[in-house]
Specification:
It contains 17 helices and 20 strands. With 490 residues, it is of the alpha/beta class. It has three domains: 139 residues, Rossmann fold, CATH 3.40.50.720; 141 residues, Succinyl-CoA synthetase domains (Rossmann fold, 3-Layer(aba) Sandwich), CATH 3.40.50; 180 residues, Rossmann fold. The protein has a seven-stranded mixed sheet, sandwiched between helices. 47% of the residues are buried.
């Protein structure tokens, strides 16, 4: 815990290999520290280090440069190393002399490169242990931490500016981890674990388990170093908070690629599948599902059963969602006479009077939140699938060539502008008010739109396709069932 507290909430930060050359990693790391909100105060400072004589007495990215890390007047808790590979070990030795306990090593060219570089990584580990140092990497893209939410830290080379949140990420791919941070936005911790020569995925997992600010743990995995330890930790964690995993290296070619990327041993897919089932880990099958499952595991109430209610604006679309539910394991259940009677007061006489509920292409968009409220209050469903009320994107894509239709577009745009925001807010309020999970389905998502921004800020789950929404619902249901079995056995 002491090492991790200094890694994720350091007093002072140094960058070895810092530079004013904007095309080099040393500049990117310095700039990212500032760009994500790290604020200089009496307790927290940034110290660039570069032995090049041209920087003597000069500044790097606005901060006084030092020739050696031993020259820094304050105690440094965390140093990031971005020097060439042959200078990494001497840099670690220098950090040991300066009593720096934790490092982030960005530099690549160690075990993942094979041959003599395997021995170089072994020597790196030996030198660090001798100095009582723990480190991230090598071959890492860095870390992000919002442990101090008023002073978040991104010491890495990723092109990203997340903000403080409740999702903690371990990624054995720095590029994919950066993508995750950009997409999810609000992050508690992110670690690009690299070759895991010192600190390993299991170490970060154990720390996230104890961190009260972490609500969901997301892992992009190429291979585990210690499967038994992972199983033990994950089994305990999933009782309290969800762990979502996407694993690469599941094919022969992918396994070879993982070995050359981060020196990971991908392992047999069957072994990992068994591990997930035994520990309650939520496994994503692809990138899209991974992203939605992370968000849903954090924000969506977990379905207690498989009874699905469907609310859609068109009959054909509603039928398609119903088919997808049956194929995916959800039950499209009949609805009660009382609910039919209540809905009939809002829709034309020719509506189907069945589940799925088709609003028969009504132009009265206010019926959507009204019917949704009736469905939620009825207690007849364990999950509800419905459409978003975002309309701007569709109108913007309608580009007619004749003047009459162009005038109509202006009229539609004005009409949508007046009601869309109000309807979306009503829908969000209803979804967050009830404990029954609701997933919105919209093929336009995530197009740039004020409505989609409102949904995202409100923690509403939107999937472009019904199949994605149904898979997420089923996996959360299975997780809920797993927790119930665990509690009954204890």
């Amino acid at each position: 815990m002491e090492y991790f507290n200094k890694l994720f909430n350091p007093r002072n930060v140094a960058v070895l290999g810092a530079t004013n050359n904007q095309m080099k990693v040393g500049y990117m790391v310095m700039n990212n520290i500032i760009a994500c909100g790290f604020t200089i105060n009496d307790r927290k400072k940034i110290y660039p280090v570069n032995p090049n004589p041209k920087y003597k007495g000069e500044k790097i990215v606005g901060f006084r440069a030092y020739q050696k890390i031993q020259e820094i007047p304050d105690q440094v808790d965390l140093a990031t190393i971005v020097v060439p590979s042959d200078a990494v070990i001497p840099s670690v030795e220098a950090c040991g002399e300066a009593n720096i306990p934790v490092l982030v090593i960005i530099t690549a060219g160690f075990k993942e490169a094979g041959g003599e570089y395997v021995d170089m990584q072994s020597e790196l580990v030996r030198v660090a242990k001798k100095a009582n140092i723990r480190f991230v990497g090598p071959n890492s893209m860095g870390i992000y931490s919002s442990m101090d939410s008023n002073n978040p830290l991104h010491t890495g080379m990723g092109f990203m500016t997340p903000t403080p949140g409740e999702i903690s990420i371990i990624s054995q791919s720095g590029t994919f981890g950066t993508f995750l941070c950009n997409y999810l936005g609000k992050i508690r911790f992110f670690v690009s674990s690299g070759n895991e020569a010192s600190l390993k995925a299991e170490d970060y997992l154990e720390f996230y388990a104890q961190d009260e600010g972490t609500k969901v743990i997301a892992i992009f995995l190429e291979g585990l170093r210690d499967g038994k330890r992972f199983k033990k930790i994950a089994t305990e964690i999933t009782k309290r908070k969800p762990v979502v995993i996407l694993k690469s290296g599941t094919t022969q070619i992918g396994s070879r690629a993982a070995a050359s990327h981060t020196a990971s041993i991908a392992g047999k897919t069957e072994v990992y599948e068994g591990l997930y089932k035994q520990t309650g880990v939520l496994k994503a099958d692809n990138i899209t599902e991974f992203l939605f499952l992370i968000k849903a595991a954090k924000d969506l109430p977990y379905p207690k059963g498989k009874r699905a209610g469907i609310l859609a604006g068109g009959g054909g679309y509603a039928v398609y969602i119903a088919d997808a539910c049956e194929k995916g394991g959800l039950d499209v259940v009949p609805i009660s006479d009382d609910l039919i009677q209540s809905i009939s007061e809002m829709l034309p006489y020719y509506w189907s009077r069945a589940n799925p509920i088709d609003t028969v292409a009504t132009w009265d968009f206010n019926v959507f939140p009204k019917i949704l409220k009736l469905m939620l209050a009825s207690g007849e469903f364990d999950i509800i699938l419905t459409q978003s009320l975002e309309m701007k994107t569709l109108i913007d894509r309608y580009q007619p060539l004749n003047k009459t239709s162009l005038d109509q577009v202006k009229l539609f745009r004005q009409f949508v502008g007046d009601i869309e925001k109000e309807l979306v807010k009503k829908q969000i309020k209803l979804i967050t008010q009830f404990k029954t999970p609701v997933i919105l389905i919209d093929p336009k998502y995530p197009s740039p739109s004020p409505a989609f921004d409102l949904y995202d800020k409100g923690g509403i789950i939107i999937c472009p396709l019904p199949e994605e929404a149904i898979k997420i619902a089923m996996k959360l249901f299975e997780y809920q069932a797993y927790l119930k079995r665990i509690n009954e056995n204890e």
